Amino acid sequence: MEKNLNNFRFEKKFISDNTRLYLILFELKSNGFFKTHPERIVNSIYFDDINLKSYYENLDGLSNRKKYRFRFYGDFTKNIQGKFEKKLKEAMLIINYHSHTRFHSKIFIKLTFLTNQIFT
Questions:
Q1: Where does residue 91 rank: exposed (0-12), middle (13-18), buried (19+ CB within 10 A)?
Q2: I need a labelling partner for 50 at 20 to 30 A (CA). Which of 36, 56, 66, 71 fits?
Q3: What gap in Å lies between CA 115 and CA 95, rounded to an integer?
Q4: Residue (of 99, 117, 101) closest to 109 by Cα position
Q5: What is the mean pLDDT of each run of 10 residues along the chain (120 residues)?
Q6: What letter would DSSP give residue 91?
């Protein structure tokens, strides 16, 4: 996976009700924040070990963890161009490593079918 030093960010999550959400969005827009991507379909396939370690780390809210996923955009009836990612979380620092990959949709559909057979 390629190491890209530009692929890191600090992340802090907050809980808000709908009333405050509009105020938060207004403040963000007023301070120069804007939407960086158009509306699109985001597809993610997450990988885990047989003991579901990543799943339980997420549920437990561990601040230091890693996860692996394949992410692509749009529908999967065409050729799929996506990326495998290794995402490291250390407290509020998020680091992404990724490699770009292209799949033909028939390969992806077979992979999806096999995955569904294993987990159902």
A1: exposed
A2: 71
A3: 27
A4: 117
A5: 59 80 88 85 86 88 85 74 82 75 57 50
A6: T
Three-state secondary-structure class, residue 2: strand
Extract the runs of DSSP E, i.e. beta strands, from 1-120.
8-10, 42-47, 64-73, 80-90, 93-103
pTM: 0.60
Residue with tokens 């996506």: 82
Dihedral sign for Cα atoms in the order 23, 58, 40, 12? positive
d(CA 108, CA 119): 16
pLDDT of residue 105: 53
Q: What are phi and psi of 107, to 5 degrees?
A: -65, -45
